[in-house]
Amino acid sequence: MANFAERLDLALTKRGFTGAQVASALTEAGIPITRAYVSQLRTGKQTNPTLQVLRALASCLQVSVGWLVGDDHLESGSVEDLQVRAANVGLSASGLSEESLAVLRGVVELARKAEGLPEEPEPTSDIPEAGAPLSGPQRRALGKRLHGLRLAAQLSVEQVETAIGRGAAAIPAVEEGRIAPAPITVERLLAVYGVAAAPIREYVLSLARGEREAAWYDAQSVPVWLATGYALEQRATVIRTYHNQFVPPLLQTEEYARAAITVNGPATLGQQTVDEAVALVLARQEALSRDNGVVLWAVIDESVLSRSIVGPHVQLRQLDVLIEHAKRPNVSLHVVPMEDPVYAPRTGPFTLWRFAEAFESDIACAHGIESDALVTDTGEVEAYHQAFTKLSVTTTTRDETFELLNAHRERLSRSLAK
């Protein structure tokens, strides 16, 4: 079975890169590594590259991270989990002696025979072809995003070309979507523009590598921090979210969303008008409405159910929709009671995303006043997980949630009947 070191060596050889060239390219892109470190990864002497380094190596060598760590033949369903774990076994074998590897291969062969599986094929010649050219929509979306980042960094075209080396990229042609820069060039541009947050860098690079089609959140009018959050949300398999002032956007009716945006101002979503901001909220909800296996676990404060930001008829319709959502098998809705709450976190609203990829860690998002803050530090993300866990064990149960929603609905209906 090909491990990470073997696949890295194969990719370097097939793409015609030396370790020094890769180290130089990644360092220029803002991920400083040495030629010696690349050599150690290539020979299996180092086996624990960070996800940032893995992504940068994959970008430079024009392969996926999954292929690099050995999960390129994943299937759907429960088989995927098994194959991801198998890929991780291959990655953890890097650095073992030849004698230990021989023993490991023997154990794997015996296990495959015992389970009636065919002999493991040699995958070392299966390196993917270099990435196909980007489509027109991908080039234009990438160009507009890079154009916006350059303007935000207050840099002229001449300053950027000087920073990355004249001739490295035709900046006007890139920004107009006429040509697609190499992913490693995009890495360097992001470094020049001061884009240091890993999720934002990966959001832009996933488009540069052609790993996804251009989406609604790639529009230039959507701020890059917000687009990154939307992209993460679209890929998440489990979404945990806590809101203490409004109904979570994923569960809002159009009328309620309009009222909430009017209260906060459309600028909180980077938009100039309420209509534009509402369109973003509704576009987000498509991911939850599709049958794609995503699970939403939402916790709201009880005050959300009685806060008057809309007329009673709109509030009544919102309560009906919450009851409908609470009946869905992929939605778990719970309420923090106003009377004698057992736990109330010292924070505003926040969201946690979990992904299907075995090598991708959870990401937290703190919803701030003017923008969202993406949290990737393991310790900080764990703190949000602990807060959500404490909330979850002290909120209403599923049956109690229905009772509470219906109680608020009855209260509002009686007031309308008077």
TrEMBL record:
This is HTH cro/C1-type domain-containing protein. Gene3D superfamilies: lambda repressor-like DNA-binding domains. It comes from the Bacteria. CDD domains: HTH_XRE. InterPro entries: Cro/C1-type_HTH, DUF5753, Lambda_DNA-bd_dom_sf. Residues 33-68 form the HTH cro/C1-type domain. Residues 114-136 are annotated as: Disordered.
